[in-house]
Structures are given as structure tokens and as C-alpha cells.
Amino acid sequence: MYHFGTLAFGSLLLAMFQMLYFILSVIYKQTKSTSEDGTMNKVAGVAAGCCLCCLKCWENIVRYMNKNVYTVVVMNSEHFCTGAHTVVKVFAEDFAALGILEGVTKVFQVGGVVTITGVGSYLTWFVLRNVKAFNDSSSPHVVPQPEVVTVAAGALCFSISLVFMNIFDVISDTILLCWSLDRMYRKQNNMETNPNVPSRLKALLDKAVGGYSLLDPA
Description:
7 helices
């Protein structure tokens, strides 16, 4: 109950950006249409197009920030604005590690979606073509159009893979954010590094950090 206001505030921010985007989209379409004398207001069209790009960019930033802010809210029991400030500090402190590992995660997600969809479709096709119960015309379970079933199985595998890969993305982002929050807290309080971090994960994260951050003095 305590954090319902935080959830509502984050949703309100996204709704505001989407509403502004919709209004500007209408204005942009109106400027592209010709007026009574056959001319078109190109200045207004360019201005509306630039505003649409900026709004879409900010909407994506807020959408990505919301996910991380909610994690900070759950961990530190902070309200939305304080959590957003903490997330910005975390990104500035470990932007290199978070950026590199986020990119690796996206590549893994794409690979997972392609692999699950491809393997599921191939196995469906293989079974329908090689199992007698499905390819024998005298069998009551014969599949007369295996291509259709294969396409349906591929679509189902694609949907399932998206769900699993989205869960993987949330979990990996949460792990990275927790590691960065712990690292920042220990650094501010002159504490030793966390000994409970798995050795392989610690080696990967330390290598990605490289000892550089936006908050380091020039």
C-alpha cells in the first residue's frame, strides 16, 4: 500500500508523455495536409516533427528509468523522486559497466528468441514429417497441412520466448542495479567490497567497470 502512489506517479509520467505525443501527432498530420490555397506550413511541420522525436526519446528514457526506480523503491523504501535521483547517480557511477552488460543482455535476448523459435519450429516440422502417426494418410491423427501447424508452433514459441527473455532482462537489470547500489554504498562508507558476490560475476563486472565513471574527477 505504501508504494501505490509511487507506481501511480510513474504511470502518470508515461501517460503525460503519451498524451502530448498524441496531440503533437495530430498537429503534425494537420501541417502535412495542404491548406485551401494548396500550400503547406513547412516550418510548423518541421517543428512538430522535432518535438515528436524529442518526446519519444524522453518517453523511452522515462520508461527505462521507471523500471529501475521501482527496484530502488523496493530496496530502499524511497519515494519516486528520491529513487530517480539514486538511479541517476548509479548510472553516472557505473555507466560503463551497466551499458556494456545491458548490450550483452540484449544480444542474449535476441539470441534466445531466435533459438527458441527456430528450434521449436524445426522440431514441430521434424515430428510431423517423420512420425508415422502424423504423416500416414490412414492414421486418425494425420496432419494434412504440416506447414500451417509449423507456423502456428513457431508463433507460439516466439510468444513464449518473448516472455522468458523479458523476465531474464528484468532479473539481469535488477542484479546489476543491486550490485551497483551496494558498490556505491560501500564506497561512500569506506567499506570493503562485498565478499558475497560470485567470483565469476565479480570478475566480469570489475572488468566492465574498468575503474572509470562519470563521477570520477578529471
